[in-house]
Amino acid sequence: MGDPMLYTRREIGKLALGAVPAMAGIGATAPNSKFDGVQIGAITYSYRGIDKIDDVIAALIKSGVNEVELMSPSAESEAGAPSGRGGGGGAAARNQPRALELRQWRLSAPMSSYQAIGKRFTDAGIDLRLLCFNMNETITDEELDYVFRMAKALGAKGVTTSTQITVARRVAPIAESHRMPIGFHGHDNVADPNETGSLESYAKALSFGKYNFVNADIGYFTAAGYDAIAFIKEHHARITNLHLKDRTRTRGSAVSRNLPWGQGETPVKEVLQLLKKEKYPFPANIEMSYTVPQGSDSVTEVAKCVELCRQYLA
Fold it and tell me: Is the CB of residue 155 less than 8 Å from the CB of residue 122?
């Protein structure tokens, strides 16, 4: 597949102007970001620095988004995780006091707290479709079970995660016991066989169980030199959702970069048109990863991405 049609900064600016009326006067009106059958959403990583649940909901509404992939630290902190240390699955060593405290809290956390959080999204007209709970090899099986109970209490239909292949093997029977898919998010590290990045690593993760899915990040697919459209066509039945971002390809010593949409080499428009044509049911979630321009903010930039999606699907 050749390079996607790229847009100039001026063209991107003209398209983004359409986002302004959509944001004006929203008030309490629920947003709608489903365009011609394609559900556009956002992962809350896009709003870096906005962590409190009510602030996250307000940001989604202002951006015109009605489907969300919620990062676990926001939910866990809101539910009372010790020292606001929610999420991550135990980045500290397994037996360090902080990790032990968080683990103990998770195993006794009342699911009613998450049910109340989920209701706040529902009341705002936002579909909390997915819980993003990043984890690593220090996470225990008891915590893995907690992740799915947490997702169900929030009202989510699945889990997404950045993790290792060893964890993908361990979590497979737990995901099956809950009958809930878990989508493995990849990056562009294709050299380490324990990281989800190469096509072989995705195949291995999927082989461990029927509830192991892929959270396909089309930006990282492009950075790794792969064809995102071909992958989606082949694996559409095992995809929880997409992440939309624009990156350059990695070439020799040139490191891939996140760029404002239209300035990279990721086929964002072509991917969305594929979803529209084939009527794939999974959402395409904006991951606004580029540097916010001076004078703007993350809410405005996500709104620009939403408007571009609308234009791409027109």
Answer: yes
Separation CA 286–CA 217 (nearest Å): 10
- Residue 97 CA to its chain's centroid (Å): 30
- Tens of pLDDT, residue by residue over 206-253, are 999 999 999 999 999 999 999 999 999 999 999 999 999 999 998 766
Residue 252 has a pLDDT of 65
Buried b (16+ CB within 10 A) or exposed e, 26-65: eeeeebebebeebbbbbbbbbbeebbebeebbbbbbbbbb
| Cα 277 versus chain centre, distance | 22
pLDDT (0 to 100) of residue 133: 98
pLDDT lower than 70: segments of the chain: 1-28, 84-95, 252-253
What tokens appear for 262 in the block? 């239209």
> Within 10 A of 21 (CB to CB), how many other CB atoms are there?
9
CA distance 22 to 133: 31
Q: What is the pLDDT of residue 1?
A: 33
* Alpha carbon distance 105, 81 (integer Å): 7
Among 175, 110, 177, 100, smallest CA distance to 139 is for 100
